Amino acid sequence: MLPILHFIFSLLLSSLFISKSNFLLILLLICAGGFLIDIDHYLIYFIKTKNFNLWKGYKFYLNAKHGRNEHVLQIFHTFEFFALVLISCLFFPMMLYFSASILLHYILDILENIFTKNKDYVKVWSILYFIIKKKNSQAF
Ligand SMILES: [Zn+2]
After folding, report:
1. How remote is the CA of residue 140 from the centroid of ligand 1, in Å?
2. Which partner from 13, 21, 27, 126 sits 20 to 30 angstroms from 95, CA to CA?
3. d(Cα 128, Cα 83) in Å, to the nearest integer?
4. Are 82 and 93 within 8 A, CB to CB?
């Protein structure tokens, strides 16, 4: 999904909490979870191309001409990462805002994958699954 849409949905989610006294912190946490976790797209781009130009990384994903059907591990888009965030809520209750925005982000990404036919890559939603799949593919 386009980053601007994630940002807009993050703002919409944070608007639910506008009356809270710590709204700015809530806004930051929600924007971090709903918008900034897509930084893992750029991490993959940086690793693949050794190019640190954010704009070129953005265009790389917009053009979607890279690695069709390639299984891609986006570290912040995994069950394991989300589980860590949920566990952190036990110790830091404010992380609930962060986890809620991540959940919204995941739902938007899943809806995009369902409703768009331009699937440029296959997102792997588990680090464990990715490791097992890599090991199995190297065995043959
Ligand atoms: Zn995403």
Report:
1. 32
2. 126
3. 13
4. no
User: What tokens appear for 39 in the block?
Assistant: 């930084």
Q: Are strands 71-73 and 122-124 parallel, antiparallel or unpaired?
A: parallel
What whole-number distance in Å separates Cα of residue 52 and Cα of residue 61? 14
| Residue pLDDT, tens place only, 106-117 | 999 888 878 876
Q: How far is the CA of 20 from the centre of ligand 1 (A)?
A: 27
What is the whole-number distance in angstroms between the Cα of residue 52 and the centre of ligand 1? 19
H helix and E strand count, the chain: 7, 2
Total domain count for the chain? 1
Tens digit of pLDDT for each residue in 4-19? 999 999 999 999 999 9
| Nearest to 131, CA basis, from 79, 73, 83, 74 | 73
- Mean pLDDT of the residues in the chain: 86
| Domain of residue 99, residue span | 3-139
CA of 72 to the centre of ligand 1 (A): 12
Distance of CA 35 from the midpoint of ligand 1 (Å):
8
**What values do phi and psi take at 123, rounded to 5?**
-80, 130
